[in-house]
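Summary for the lay section of the report: proteins are chains of building blocks that fold into shapes. Here we show the chain for Fatty acyl-AMP ligase and then a coded description of the shape we predicted for it.
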Amino acid sequence: MDTISQPLPGTGAVQADGESFATLLGYWARRLGDRVAVTYLDHRAAPDGRAVTLTWRELDSRVDAVAARLSEVADPGERAAVLAGQSADYVVAFLGALRAGLVAVPLFAPGLPGHAGRLAAALADCTPRVVLTTTAEFDAVRAFTAGPVVIAVDAVPETGPRDWPCPDPDTPAYLQYTSGSTRTPAGVVLTHRNVLANARQACAAYGAESGSTSAVSWLPLFHDMGLILGIGAPMAGGLASVLMDPLAFLERPARWLRALSASPGAISAAPDFAYAYSASRVTEDEKLYLDLSRVVSLINGSEPVRPATVAKFQAAFAGCGLRPEVHRSSYGLAEATVLVSVTGAGKPARQVTFDRDRLAAGYAVPAAEGTTLVSCGHPAGQRVRIADPVTGGPAAPGEVGEILVSGPNVGRGYWGRPEASAAVFGLPPLDPETGEGWLATGDLGVLFDGELYVTGRLKDLVVVDGRNHYPQDIEHTVEEHPAVRPHSAAVFGIAGDDGEAAVVVAERAKGTEADIGAAAAEIRAAVSAGHGLRVHDVVFLPPGEVPRTSSGKISRARCRKSYVDDSLTARRLG
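The coded shape description reads as follows.
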């Protein structure tokens, strides 16, 4: 049976040859001129955020200057890595690289805690000819990179306007490094055609309008979602971009919501944990300053969307004017630029409860009790199919399998990794009209009543005694224990003498006096009763010690590695 889902109407990308984010910047500079293009809320300079702004004309002029400087030291097609903190200067650096015809590599400054290994590996992989940073970070970046030319973009003098060649749409625009192992980072090769198609798909799907919509984001600009929301969609759609540092959000999530309140027609996006975190941390006094009635879309993606999170966030901010239909759950990945599917506008995302045992066996069967999944909607201009996990052919109706994606937003492969690329990108059957193949996402999902439901990741499945267990379901059960800090649990499998065994790692809740041994025993019992799974080990860590990604999400892969190499032992409680 054909399992290809249909896209939302109005999301087709129309793209002229030679267009790029950098050429469109010039178009918006002429059209919008002195209107503000980028606002960076600097919470290091002032607790409430000192606004650093660039108009469209100013941004275009600064990007011209950086591109001119780059053309003196690098040839088109060479890599230009961006190593800077979140700022308006980051936007200038990234767009300057594109305008000069270089392949941008959005990364981060060396000071990001816990990620020096990943940064070093990414630089070794992409071998940049030039590195772009700021004067404040110049010395640290030069010491860390020790080789490429280093340019501080905020010190580049302005130049007169000049004509820049339009890029071939099928040449690389930038390399998007995935958040995998620090030893083997993979840079997804994204062309100008890929990224502009996806940015336009996002604008259409999110209801963005030129000149009246603001894209508000604390997501790191070196992440796929942060880059498209903070730079890509604004360049494609003529949207104002309002940025803040991820740390500013984590310190006080009300800052994000105040930025939304101050930006009429705002769209934004964040992982699921951020919505629950905001609902828990924003005080009643802070809510007095919030008006969320004009928010257009709040995208929840990059990790499984929990029904409880949606309900908690809506309950917390309904009094601030937040409308339920603003919540938009989505699915995406770096290999597809970012966005693949999203729920429709105007109504809350659909939630369906499936029989837990049947779901673990690979079939989505509605039930009165079980696992409730939130729909990720319809493709935003791509094709999606579910592959049978055994045969690789189309899955049967209601069968869980690997999500495959095809469309103009799908990247060309991994930089310098032909074998890995061939295993993931361009899989048959090829589209007879476009020649596009299928991207194997590594994610599991099911098409139910025409909508996509994501059930987990293939590599994260915990398989014990021949049964599949989705880690997010078990993590939810673990986090219901009062001794566990909310959104701190990671569940993963390790190789044991008798096959795979399940391990739970979680942070102890702040202020709790619970006995760790007793709490671990109670968690084992709860997981056994709720999931029929015997837990091999329960590890409690102090608050803030569970390994996370640079955007604050729990990293199961890093947790597994730290457990296996025994580096968690020194921090283990009890």
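Put simply, here is one thing we learned. The chain has three domains: 21-268, 350-457, 461-571.
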